[in-house]
Amino acid sequence: MYGYNGYGDWGYENMMGGWFGGGIMMIVFWALFIALIVWVVREVGGRHSHSQSHSSSQALTILKERYARGEIEKGEFESMKRDIS
């Protein structure tokens, strides 16, 4: 089968290079674009959850220190611990 190349010529090579090569390049482009979006979402989501767990463990450490110093009572400690977790 032959294809038109846009320059007034017909030929098999032009059809395969234009349709087949163009189709593959479009698939590669969209695959890379989707992979980029997935990577960005994972990076942003991973940092957010990591920072959240880090701040939660910091808050629990501070809470334990306050309880150990006697600044808060056991009931308050347990209530705040549940709120943090």
Structure at a glance:
The chain is mainly α and 85 residues long. It has helices at 12-69, 74-84, and strands at 3-4, 10-11. It has one domain.
Beta-strand percent range: under 5%
How would a crystallographer describe the biggest sheet?
A: 2 strands, antiparallel
Overall domain count: 1
For the terminal residues, how far apart are their CA atoms? 67 Å
Helix-strand string: EEHH
Helix content: over 70%
Strand order of the largest sheet: 1-2
Overall structural class, as computed from helix and strand content, comes to mainly alpha
Mean pLDDT: 77
What radius of gyration results from the CA coordinates? 30 Å
Q: Could you give the count of β-strands?
A: 2
Low-confidence stretches: none
Q: Looking at the structure, what is the overall shape? A: rod-shaped
Helix count from the secondary structure assignment: 2
Write the layout of secondary structure elements.
Layout: E1 3-4, E2 10-11, H1 12-69, H2 74-84
Antiparallel strand pairs: 1-2
Helix pairs in contact: 1-2
